From TrEMBL:
Origin species: Nocardioides vastitatis
Stated name of the protein: DNA/RNA helicase domain-containing protein
UniProt xrefs under Pfam families: SLFN-g3_helicase (PF09848)
UniProt keyword RNA-binding, yes or no: no
Annotated keywords: ATP-binding, Helicase, Hydrolase, Nucleotide-binding
Schlafen group 3-like DNA/RNA helicase domain boundaries: 183-556
Length: 573
């Protein structure tokens, strides 16, 4: 490819007028440009950069921007410019900039020689970073929560179709009689959280749209009409996230995103205690909402009862946090994966199945199947779930470029994960809750003890993945559900065993230390078979956290030999 150049100019009428007349490529060539101030940035693409920059000068939202950079390459075409525009928007947001773009123009399409262009894009990024527009490296940005949880993601066709259908349904309901709730169903790595965040951002963008035309028409930009803007203007929208750690991470993303605020991201208790209803609540990880069960503290137990009495005049066991959400919102979008229930307090499977069935009957169920996380392909998640079920696969699969390793020596796996973290970042050890949390009371105590190795559980629950000590610790399901890693080193403890006599998986209650994970709800008596299902779900989640690879060590000898053949397609530990 030929070289590119980045032309820099002040963003004012005089400088733009002079620049526009200087070269024919300033008026008639596909380019990408950035407009920025100290903390804000806008990215665009145009065939007439000079004319487009003049238009931006007349727009109130961009009047505070002070300089422009125009990226010109002799080989650019419209498709490459759209791709670079999308790429830079995502990187700027991941670097902590206030990105003024809406997310309707973020596209992800194939085109001729895309991989060659992508190499050039990294060179362009390096040039912009050297010029002060970026602080972090691409690797640092892509490993950050701001990037992974950004609303400026390029949606897959499945995700985009779901977003359009949901918005159309919501608009119809707001203009007529309220319909039933919408459900998005999908396994790990299918991008449910991405869709939830993207949807909230797009609804806010449509509701605040000022009529400014889009530079590029996409299937999403067609949703921006005066009628839709009037319908969605001022809509009270909330994103409910049951898990504390993930909620804090998403709040940080919303705080740095124009049009969104951290207080839009809610716990179920925030919803229940509110005196005012929402127009729309989007619920991520709906399966982690609670039934009437013993909560994590006495205060939460009191609050649960108080909310039930306030809303339903009784504190009966039939009232759940999902009931709170339905009572306090006119519309709901529920994101569900029944097989990611990991505690008895989670909504029961039959209730979630009923929610999905009702949405299906109303044409409001959207299923996501395309694998966005794990590079082993769409079959990997189902493969892991089947391995950990009573009906395992008949033969191992080829993991392709996905780095799977089966370790007999835990010390070697720990070293391998630390090496991956040093090389690529975001490699962490994870384990089932098969060891007691001794270090919680005494930070000098070890928790997970092997003959030649001692490890500790996560020293914090919120933002553990990004904490400085996390590479030397072991994360539990409660720190990692909803997050992506580059590499996951998973320890399967003795809470899960294999019985060679009955040729079946068994739950070992004696070696399961999650007190809330085996606590009966009112009127409930959990059997070992019931708890086995939760433990299988937990390990399925842990084994699907790694984007680039999963390393595995199994404590129980019989289970180790049972699982070994299923990971034969990976590299030996």
């Amino acid at each position: 490819m030929t070289d590119f150049r980045i032309e820099r100019l002040q963003f004012n009428q005089a400088a733009v007028a002079v620049w526009g007349q200087r070269n024919h490529q300033h008026r008639d060539w596909p380019v990408v440009y950035t407009l920025n101030s100290n903390d804000q940035v806008y990215v665009g693409e145009s065939l007439d950069a000079g004319g487009r920059l003049r238009q931006h000068l007349d727009q109130r939202k961009k009047s505070q921007l002070v300089e422009a950079r125009v990226i010109i390459d002799e080989t650019f075409n419209k498709s490459a410019c759209l791709d670079l525009e999308s790429y830079l928007i995502q990187l700027f947001h991941g670097d902590g900039r206030q990105v003024l773009n809406g997310n309707a123009g973020v596209v992800d399409g194939s085109y001729f020689q895309r991989q060659r262009y992508r190499k050039r894009f990294r060179e362009i990024f390096d040039r912009l970073r050297a010029d002060g527009l970026f602080e972090a490296t691409i690797e640092e940005i892509e490993n950050s929560d701001l990037f992974k949880l950004s609303p400026f993601k390029s949606l897959t066709e499945q995700q985009g179709d779901a977003v359009v259908s949901i918005i159309q349904g919501l608009l119809a309901d707001l203009r007529g009689d309220p319909g039933t709730g919408t459900v998005i169903e999908g396994g790990p790595g299918t991008g449910k959280t991405v869709v939830a965040i993207f949807l909230v951002k797009m609804l806010r963008d449509i509701g605040s749209w000022d009529g400014e035309p889009f530079e590029s028409e996409t299937y999403l930009s067609g949703m921006f009409t005066p009628e839709n803007a009037a319908t969605l203007e001022g809509l009270r929208i909330g994103l409910v996230v049951p898990q504390q750690s993930l909620r804090k991470s998403i709040q940080a993303v919303f705080a740095k995103t124009p049009g969104l605020t951290a207080d839009m991201v809610l716990s179920p208790f925030d919803v229940g205690k509110s005196e005012h209803p929402w127009d729309l609540l989007v619920v991520d990880e709906t399966h982690r909402l609670n039934q009437r069960a013993n909560q994590t503290s006495a205060q939460k137990n009191r609050e649960f009862a108080e909310i039930n009495i306030k809303l339903f005049r009784s504190d009966g066991p039939e009232h759940t946090q999902l009931d709170w959400i339905k009572e306090l919102s006119h519309q709901q979008v529920l994101l569900v994966d029944i097989k990611q229930r990991v505690r008895p307090a989670d909504l029961n499977a039959s209730m979630l199945a009923e929610v999905c069935s009702e949405a299906l009957s109303q044409g409001r169920l959207h299923r996501l199947t395309s694998q966005m996380r794990v590079r082993a392909g769409e079959d990997y998640v189902d493969y892991v779930r089947r391995i950990l079920s009573q009906t395992p696969p008949t033969r191992p699969i080829d993991f392709g470029e996905y780095d799977v390793r089966f370790f007999d020596d835990i010390g070697q796996m720990v070293s391998a994960i630390k090496n991956r973290n040093a090389d690529e970042g975001l490699a962490r050890l994870l384990a089932g809750y098969a060891w007691s949390w001794e270090s919680k009371k005494d930070s000098r105590r070890a928790d997970i003890v092997f003959p030649n190795l001692e490890l500790q559980w996560n020293s914090r629950v919120v933002d553990w993945v990004d904490s400085p000590k996390s590479v030397d610790e072991v994360g539990s399901i409660h720190t990692i559900q909803g997050y992506d890693l580059n590499y996951a080193g998973v320890i399967i403890g003795r809470d899960l065993r294999y019985d060679p006599v009955s040729a079946s998986l068994k739950f070992d209650r004696e070696h399961y230390y999650d007190k809330k994970g085996k606590q009966n709800n009112p009127g409930q008596k959990l059997s070992d078979a019931d708890l086995l299902e939760y433990v299988q779900n937990i390990y399925s989640v842990l084994l699907t956290r790694g984007i680039r690879g999963t390393y595995l060590h199994v404590v129980d000898e019989h289970l180790r030999e049972y699982l070994r053949p299923y990971f034969a397609g990976g590299r030996p530990g």
